[in-house]
Structures are given as structure tokens and as C-alpha cells.
Specification:
GO terms for molecular function: ADP binding; ATP binding. The protein has 506 residues and is α/β, with parallel strands linked by helices. It has 4 domains: 137 residues; 153 residues, Rossmann fold, CATH 3.40.50.300; 66 residues; 101 residues. Helices cover 56% and strands 8% of the residues. The strands form 3 sheets. Strands 4-5-6-3-7 form a 5-stranded parallel beta sheet. Strands 8-10-9 form a 3-stranded antiparallel beta sheet. The protein has a two-stranded antiparallel ribbon with strand order 1-2. Helix 9 links the parallel strand 5 and strand 6. Helix 11 crosses helix 12 and helix 12 runs parallel beside helix 14. The longest helix has 33 residues.
Length: 506
């Protein structure tokens, strides 16, 4: 009997201990959930601090260790589990307050969640306490090159070399912090800038640059992309998720560490706000110089360049030297030579057209092929030397801010090629033709016409004539204007070309 009584007492004690343990776990449900929430807040803050340290460290050339990455991965996995438990706990409490008849079921759920919460709480504390390891390892980045060489056709001809030397002198002159290069599309601005970029690798300067940064821009300017191009050249990592202002501050700090900088912005279509980007400028010392290539003189004005260099089309002999140098010895053949000269002339002094045609005709000795190429050049889009030139001219044309400017430009194609048009005569024709309307007096209309001419000149759609007070349209632009008038009804013009009559207004 004594042994039986002892067994009953032991069973009772174990049962009481078991029940008490479960009731204690159940009773501490809210406390365990609150502790889990508190530890979750702590580890989230710690994780954010670690990520911030990583972002800053990367800017200085450091990378997180494998242990750091593993810790962050473990935290993210545990966070998902904790969020699930906290959500289920909230749903259980809500059910208890609404459905009292589900009390037994809810107590079972709360018991299980309380157990899990206590376990997760311990795991969170372990992760928090383990965050004392070395978080970084140094990654040696390659040294910053003075210049990143660009693929560019070497300059040919004395005039091109003189223009290159002029730019080198301007960049070496402290009076000029911003230099603009402007001219019509495909005239060779980018080619000039690329040759300048490559030349700076070896040229001797009074105060040499310690880094030259090339930035390619597009018509639809992406500020973050521009920032990233600059940052990459100075071994700076920028977070794509950061705001432009935050990235600009970091970029500015990095660039100010350089002794002397040159930033080349190629193919600029509108004003670029250097302050928004984080580019130092106008500091009075010209430690950071800016070079801009653009089709529009107005862009140079808006960016407040100190001096502007206009790039015109190549002269005949200069263009021929470039063409012959690329096409090779085939142009020396007796029957080919006169045709090759004419093909080169049809490219209208545009480097891209010359290079494209010369490459396509290289090693082609058959006269028939040269005659066919010449005929093709005088037809359709190929009269512009290449489809790239045509597309470039079309982009410039449709970038004019108003249809009135379109019509005024197209009107100029009615004049003969290379003919110097009196500006006053042109304006009166525009007025008589109903292109300039909405003015109270003839003087107002005339003044507006002169302003339109200046806008077309600044956009490289017209150029100065041979005498004062005159303008003219470049041959390739005139051909383009006739093509637009003949092939695009929405232009509002109708022009036809023939051997006897260059153009005819309809």
C-alpha cells in the first residue's frame, strides 16, 4: 500500500508540474509576444545600422565579409518567421474578443504561439549578441586612369589639327572654366571631343588634369545615369535607391578630393544643372573644368560657358583627305578617282557620312560600283551619306520648339544651294507667305522674323551667308528640307526637285 500511495503521489506531482508548466506558458502568452516584438524592433534597428555601415564602407573601397552577409541573411529569414507569429497572435486575440465560444481553440493556439514566441525570442537575442564580428574586408580597386581612351577615327587635315590645338589651349587657360563645342548634327563635334580626350593622355599641359571623365548624354536626360557615369570613373559606388540630392552630396565630396578635373558632357540637348548632379564648378580656381558638345548655341548660353567653338563642315580637300585615307589605294585608280572625288563631295563635309561611305567603298575597284554608289547618294535618305546622318538631321528638325520654325526652315530650301539670302528679304517672304502671323504691326512681325532666323542659326539649321546681313542653308540640310517637304505631308510644304528646277513651292 505504501508503494502504491507513493506512486500515486509521484503521478500527481508530475501531472501538476506538467499542467502548471502549460498554464504558465499560456499565462505568459502576451508577455512572450511583447518580448518577441521588442527584440524584433532591436534587431531591425541593428540590421539597418549594419546596412548603413556597408553603404558607407563601399564608398571607401570596403566590402562586407562573408560572415556579415550570412548574418544579414539569417536576420531576414528570422524576421519573416517573427512577422508571421506576430500576425497570428494578433488574429488570435481578435478572435477571442469576438467569439467567446471558441475559447478552448484559442487557448490551444495561444499556447503554441507562446512556445514559438519564446523560442524565436531566444534566437533573436543570440543574433543580436553575435553581431560583434569584423564586418568589412578591404577590396583594392584599380587605380583611376587619367583618361579612358575612346574609339575614334584619327583627325586628318591641318584645320582639324588646329581646332584640336585650340581646345587644348583653352583647357590650359585659367580664364575658361566652361568650354562649349557646337555645330549641326553629325558635323564632327563628338569626333573632335573624343580625339581631345585621347590626346590628353599624353599631351604636356601647364597644369595637367589628374582625371578626365567622359559623360555620354541623350535627348531624354537621366540625371542618375549621369551621376553614375561620373561616380564610376572615380571609384565611387552610388546606391540606385538613394535620392538624387543624397547622391549629389556624396559625389561632390569625392570630386573635391581631386586636384584638377575635366568633365566632358557629350551630345547635350538641354541645360544640365551641375549643382543638382553634384559637380563642382565656378569655384574661382577652375579646378573642375567643363566641356560641352551640343547642336544648340542656346545650350551653351544656358550653361554659361566662358567660350564657344563652332565646328563647321569639312572643306573639300580636308574631306577628300579623310575619305581617301579610309577608302585606301582603290581611289588612285584612273577610272575610279573622279568618281571617288564626286562621292566624297556628295557627303557635304560631314565626317560621319565621309567615314561611312569610305568604309563601304574600300577595296572596290569596279567602276560600276562607284557609279551606283554615286547615284544612291543622290536618292532618298542616302543623299545624306548614311541613314545615321539622316536620322540625326531629322532629330534636330523635330527638336525645333515650334511648327513655325519648321515651316521657316523648309521655306529656305526654295533658294538655290549655297545661295546667300538677305535676311530682310527672307523675313518679308515669310510674312507674305503667312508664316508669321498674330502681330499688330509690320515692325513687330519683322522683329519676330529676325528672332526666328537667329533661332535657326543657333540651332545650326541656318548659317551665316557670304556677306553681312545674309544667311544660307547648308547643302545637306537643303536636301533634307526638300526630302521632308516631299515625303511628310504633315510638314505643310510640298517641294519637288528636278534637274532644271531645284525646288517648287506648292
Amino acid at each position: 500500500m505504501d508503494s502504491l500511495g507513493g506512486a500515486i503521489v509521484e503521478v500527481g506531482r508530475c501531472t501538476f508540474s506538467f499542467v502548471f508548466s502549460r498554464l504558465s506558458t499560456l499565462r505568459n502568452f502576451n508577455g512572450n509576444i511583447k518580448s518577441l516584438h521588442d527584440e524584433m524592433v532591436k534587431i531591425t534597428r541593428l540590421k539597418n545600422d549594419v546596412n548603413e555601415e556597408i553603404s558607407i564602407g563601399r564608398m571607401e573601397g570596403w566590402s562586407p565579409t562573408e560572415q556579415t552577409n550570412q548574418w544579414l541573411e539569417n536576420v531576414e529569414k528570422l524576421e519573416l518567421e517573427v512577422q508571421r507569429v506576430l500576425l497570428e497572435a494578433a488574429q488570435t486575440n481578435a478572435t477571442s474578443s469576438v467569439h467567446g465560444n471558441h475559447l478552448c481553440i484559442n487557448m490551444c493556439c495561444q499556447y503554441q504561439l507562446s512556445l514559438i514566441a519564446r523560442k524565436l525570442c531566444c534566437e533573436l537575442k543570440q543574433l543580436i549578441n553575435s553581431c560583434s564580428f569584423s564586418k568589412f574586408t578591404y577590396v583594392r580597386k584599380p587605380p583611376i586612369k587619367l583618361v579612358e581612351r575612346l574609339q575614334a577615327q584619327p583627325f586628318v587635315g591641318q584645320k582639324a589639327q588646329q581646332r584640336l590645338e585650340q581646345l587644348l589651349q583653352l583647357l590650359d587657360d585659367d580664364r575658361f572654366g566652361k568650354v562649349g563645342i557646337w555645330g549641326m548634327g553629325r558635323v564632327g563635334k563628338t569626333l573632335l571631343a573624343k580625339n581631345l580626350n585621347n590626346k590628353l593622355e599624353s599631351v604636356a599641359m601647364r597644369e595637367p588634369f589628374d582625371v578626365v571623365i567622359w559623360i555620354s548624354t541623350t535627348k531624354d536626360l537621366n540625371l542618375k545615369d549621369v551621376q553614375s557615369q561620373v561616380a564610376k570613373r572615380v571609384n565611387l559606388e552610388l546606391d540606385a535607391e538613394e535620392s538624387i540630392d543624397r547622391r549629389a552630396n556624396r559625389l561632390l565630396e569625392k570630386l573635391l578630393l581631386r586636384k584638377k578635373l575635366l568633365l566632358v558632357f557629350d551630345n547635350v540637348w538641354e541645360k544640365i544643372d551641375l549643382d543638382i548632379l553634384g559637380i563642382p564648378h565656378d569655384d574661382g580656381q577652375n579646378n573642375c573644368k567643363i566641356l560641352v558638345t551640343t547642336r544648340f548655341l542656346d545650350v551653351c548660353r544656358q550653361m554659361m560657358t566662358d567660350i564657344d567653338v563652332k565646328v563647321d563642315v569639312m572643306e573639300d580637300e580636308e574631306a577628300w583627305d579623310l575619305f581617301a585615307g579610309i577608302a585606301g589605294d582603290v581611289v588612285k585608280l584612273e577610272d575610279v578617282y573622279p568618281l571617288a572625288r564626286e562621292v566624297a563631295r556628295e557627303c557635304c563635309g560631314l565626317p560621319l557620312a565621309i567615314i561611312t561611305m569610305a568604309k563601304s567603298m574600300s577595296k572596290k575597284p569596279m567602276v560600276q560600283l562607284w557609279r551606283d554608289a554615286l547615284r544612291q547618294l543622290k536618292r532618298s535618305c542616302m543623299q545624306f551619306g548614311s541613314i545615321e546622318v539622316f536620322d540625326s538631321l531629322k532629330l534636330s528638325y523635330y527638336s525645333l520648339p515650334s511648327k513655325i520654325l519648321w515651316w521657316c526652315f523648309l521655306y529656305c530650301s526654295l533658294y538655290p544651294e549655297n545661295y546667300s539670302i538677305k535676311a530682310s528679304e527672307l523675313v518679308h517672304c515669310w510674312i507674305a507667305g503667312g508664316l508669321i502671323v498674330g502681330h499688330q504691326t509690320l515692325e513687330e512681325a519683322f522683329d519676330n522674323g529676325i528672332a526666328l532666323i537667329e533661332h535657326l542659326k543657333d540651332s545650326c539649321m541656318l548659317e551665316e551667308g557670304d556677306t553681312v546681313g545674309t544667311v544660307k542653308i547648308h547643302g545637306v540640310l537643303r536636301g533634307f528640307a526638300i526630302w521632308i517637304s516631299s515625303n511628310e505631308p504633315e510638314s505643310g510644304f510640298s517641294c519637288q526637285c528636278s534637274n532644271s528646277l531645284q525646288s517648287n513651292a506648292g
